[in-house]
Amino acid sequence: MRFEKLVELYSAVLRQLLPVGGYDTANGTVISVDIYAHAKALAQVDLDGKRILAFIEKVPVELIDEYEQSLGLPLKCTTNVSRSIEERLQIINWVLATNNVLNRDYLEQLLALFSVELLQLVKYTPMQCTESCTAPVNTESLRYKVKLILKKPVKADLNCIIKNYLPAYVRYDVEESK
Fold first, then answer.
1. Which helix (H) or strand (E) element contains residue 159?
2. Which residue in 29, 136, 145, 159 has its CB near the most CB atoms, within 10 A?
3. How far apart are CA 20 and CA 76, in angstroms?
């Protein structure tokens, strides 16, 4: 995105943050000039940050703690006490490269971070084609359900993982198998 366009976007956002009716936001006023100056500074910082991050090929070891803090790491349900530098870097790279979507690959990668192996993923989709139009819509039998079949033994806190990393609109039935 071009610098001028980014300045316009930041200016619009900063104007929206002002209290309604409290300030005159017309062009040429002191507030308008101040908003433009702040928007210009924020846009420059945004572009410089993107340039620096594009230049850095991997996370420097010296900045692991800062990266973890900015990404919300260590992952909930775990600690960094027993993790090596390489494992922490691997988790940071995974978080940077992964989108949270409900598919088998994401689930396998997520559960592998907690030392859990996914054997099978069974998806249920609700069907209500033959019901009358007055039938209840949001019942237990109609909610989206997913069955996770995991390899024994499962030492991780699955309730914590489900609560923090998987979509809340889905009910998860967990089964352990050899």
1. helix 158-165
2. 145
3. 39
